[in-house]
Write a structure and sequence with these properties.
Nuclear Transport Factor 2, Chain: A; alpha+beta; Glutaredoxin; 2 domains; globular; single chain
Length: 241
C-alpha cells in the first residue's frame, strides 16, 4: 500500500489546569456551541457530523476544521479512511464538496476565456504580479485548444490593500476585462476605472477554499491543484478526476 504521509497536522486545545485534565466530548450537533470559534474570529458557515465520533466537521471562512461536540477543542488536519487498498482523504472529499457548491456564487463575476470546443471548466485564482500566473496565461491558447475553459478569480497575494489588489480592481472594472487582464500580466497600463468589483469576495472565497498562493486551480468537482500546471498535464488531471 502506498505510504501515507500526513504533514503539518496541528491540534489546538483550550488551556486546562491540572484539576480539569479530562475534558468531556459529549454532546450533539443540536446543541453545538460555536462561541469559542467566534471568539477566535472564526465565522461558522456549516456544521456536519465528522467521520470520527465526538467530532463535528465545521466549515469556516478559513476552511475546514474539526471541533469537539461541546465546542471546546479544535483540530486542524486531515482524516483518512485507511480501510481500502489506498488511503482516502475524507477531509479532501468534504472540502471538494464545499468548493463545488460555492463556485456557483461567483460564476457571474469571473473573467472567462472560453474554449471553442469546451470539455472542461477550471477556476483559477490569479494575481497579475505572480510569475507562474503569467506563465499560465501565456499558454492560454493551449488550454483552450485542449477544450479547457479558464475562469479567473482575483486573489491578490499581498492582501487587499496593496498594489496587486488595486491593479486587479482596475482589471475587473475595465470595459474589456480579458484585454485588461492580459495587459496587466505584461506590465502594461490599465485604465483606472472604478466599479463594484468582486475582488474582496474572491479573496475571501480563496481563503475559505484553502488558497495559499497563486495560481490555484479549482475543478468543477471542487478538487484544487496549487501552483502552475502545464496544459498537457492539466487535461490528464481533468480526465482522471
Amino acid at each position: 500500500m502506498k505510504r501515507l504521509a500526513i504533514l503539518g497536522v496541528s491540534v489546538l486545545l483550550t488551556a486546562c489546569n491540572p484539576s480539569t485534565q479530562e475534558t468531556s466530548t459529549t454532546g450533539s450537533l443540536e446543541n453545538f456551541d460555536a462561541q469559542h470559534l467566534t471568539r477566535m474570529g472564526l465565522s461558522v458557515k456549516a456544521v456536519k457530523p465528522s467521520p470520527i465520533d465526538g467530532l463535528a466537521e465545521v466549515i469556516t471562512q478559513q476552511g475546514l476544521l474539526y471541533v469537539s461536540l461541546d465546542g471546546k477543542q479544535l483540530m486542524s488536519g486531515h482524516i483518512y479512511d485507511i480501510s481500502g487498498q489506498e488511503p482516502v482523504s475524507l477531509s479532501d472529499l468534504a472540502l471538494n464538496a464545499m468548493r463545488a457548491a460555492d463556485l456557483d456564487s461567483i460564476s457571474e463575476s469571473v473573467i472567462e476565456f472560453k474554449a471553442p470546443r469546451e470539455k472542461h471548466v477550471v477556476y483559477v485564482f490569479t494575481d497579475n504580479t505572480c510569475g507562474y500566473c503569467r506563465q499560465l496565461h501565456e499558454r492560454m491558447d493551449e488550454y483552450l485548444a485542449l477544450g479547457i475553459t479558464v475562469r479567473y478569480l482575483a486573489w491578490p497575494r499581498t492582501g487587499l490593500q496593496g498594489d496587486g489588489a488595486r491593479q486587479l480592481r482596475q482589471v475587473w472594472c475595465a470595459e474589456d476585462q480579458q484585454a485588461a487582464l492580459t495587459a496587466a500580466k505584461q506590465d502594461q497600463p490599465v485604465s483606472s476605472a472604478r466599479c463594484e468589483d468582486p475582488v474582496n469576495q474572491h479573496f475571501a472565497l480563496g481563503q475559505k477554499f484553502g488558497v495559499r498562493g497563486t495560481p490555484a486551480i479549482v475543478f468543477e468537482s471542487g478538487k484544487m491543484l496549487p501552483g502552475y500546471v502545464h496544459p498537457e498535464r492539466l487535461i490528464v488531471e481533468l480526465e482522471n478526476d
